[in-house]
Each structure stands twice: as structure tokens, then as C-alpha cells.
């Protein structure tokens, strides 16, 4: 039931973000009736030399960088524990190579129920060395992995935001190893 609540909350946040974006867009497009006065160019702020914020694509230092095959790089930006007993791992997959590359199908894992829902990061696991346990990506009631799905081609230099959701290890566990098929493993710190 908590998975449904989390998914419902996530859909609500997406809808709220979309509505806020539309409202902001409509406010920006609505003129004040002074069509005779020149309006400042939006490029003026770009030339002011300010650094882009994290929301403009520049993320903070990653928790871990996992190198994959064919120049793929998985950068983990957060691993947050929530009150529902889950950990959500966020990051980006980047094609660091100079050619287009397909994200390997092995990242979906080898479970038939997960594979039938298409390419994903469903094969990812968290390993709690302290508690000697391995945690697999959560699935919904239809067997779909609670992770980014529909992975395919990445052009050279292209990035793709990704997420994975796992059951949370005990609260005294602060670090886990993230393992994704075809990528090197990496240690990440859990926040929250």
C-alpha cells in the first residue's frame, strides 16, 4: 500500500509541477498593454556571467560514479531514505563516448517479470555489507520495476535522468554498495 501512496504522491508532484510551469508560462506571455516600449532581451541575463543553478542542469558533486561499457557513466546524485521504508536513488546516465550507444539490456536484470516491461534499471541492487543483505529494485503489483524504464540509445554527450527505488536497510546502515549490471559498483551514502 505504501508503494501506491508513493507512486500517487509522485504523480501528484508531477502534475503540480506541470500546472505551475503552465501558470508561469502564461504569466510571462501576458503583456501589460505597453507594446510601444521595448522589452529587455532574455539573453541579457545569460550574458551577465552568473553561474547556472543546480536546477539548470548543473548538479552537486555526485555521491558515486559508476563506469559502464562503451563510455557510459552512471552518476548518483542522491540516495534518500523516506518514512515509508524505501530508499530512492537518483542520478543520471551519460554517454561519455564519442558515438551513439545503446544502454545494455543486461541493466534490466534477468527476471522474466521485469524484462517483459521493457529496458530498465531493474537489475540494480543495493548491498548492505554490514547487515549482509542484498536489496532488489521494488516492483509494483503488475511486476513493473520502480525505476526508470524505456531506456534505449544515448547520443554522444547526452544525459538521461534516472531513479531506482529499493526497500530501506535498517536505519543504522548509512552506506551501501550500488550494483548495476554492466557498470562498476560504487559505495553511496544514504541521507534521511
From TrEMBL:
Where are the compositionally biased (Low complexity) regions? 40-54
Q: Which UniProt keywords apply?
A: Signal
**Region feature Disordered, mapped onto this chain:** 32-62
* Signal sequence interval, chain numbering: 1-20
Key word Signal present: yes
Name the record gives this protein: Secreted protein
Organism in which the protein naturally occurs = Streptomyces fungicidicus
Q: What is the lineage of its organism?
A: Bacteria, Bacillati, Actinomycetota, Actinomycetes, Kitasatosporales
Amino acid at each position: 500500500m505504501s508503494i501506491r501512496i508513493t507512486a500517487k504522491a509522485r504523480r501528484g508532484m508531477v502534475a503540480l509541477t506541470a500546472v505551475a510551469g503552465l501558470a508561469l508560462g502564461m504569466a510571462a506571455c501576458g503583456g501589460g498593454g505597453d507594446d510601444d516600449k521595448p522589452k529587455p532581451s532574455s539573453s541579457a541575463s545569460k550574458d551577465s556571467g552568473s553561474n547556472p543553478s543546480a536546477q539548470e542542469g548543473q548538479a552537486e558533486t555526485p555521491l558515486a560514479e559508476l563506469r559502464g561499457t562503451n563510455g557510459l557513466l552512471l552518476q548518483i546524485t542522491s540516495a534518500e531514505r523516506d518514512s515509508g521504508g524505501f530508499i530512492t536513488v537518483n542520478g543520471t546516465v551519460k554517454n561519455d563516448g564519442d558515438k551513439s550507444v545503446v544502454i545494455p539490456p543486461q541493466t534490466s536484470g534477468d527476471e522474466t517479470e521485469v524484462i517483459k516491461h521493457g529496458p530498465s534499471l531493474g537489475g540494480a541492487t543495493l548491498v548492505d555489507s554490514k547487515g549482509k543483505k542484498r536489496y532488489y529494485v521494488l516492483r509494483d503489483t503488475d511486476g513493473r520495476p520502480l525505476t526508470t524504464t524505456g531506456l534505449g540509445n544515448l547520443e554522444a554527450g547526452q544525459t538521461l535522468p534516472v531513479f531506482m527505488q529499493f526497500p530501506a536497510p535498517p536505519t543504522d546502515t548509512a552506506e551501501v554498495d550500488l550494483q548495476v549490471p554492466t557498470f562498476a559498483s560504487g559505495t553511496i551514502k544514504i541521507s534521511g
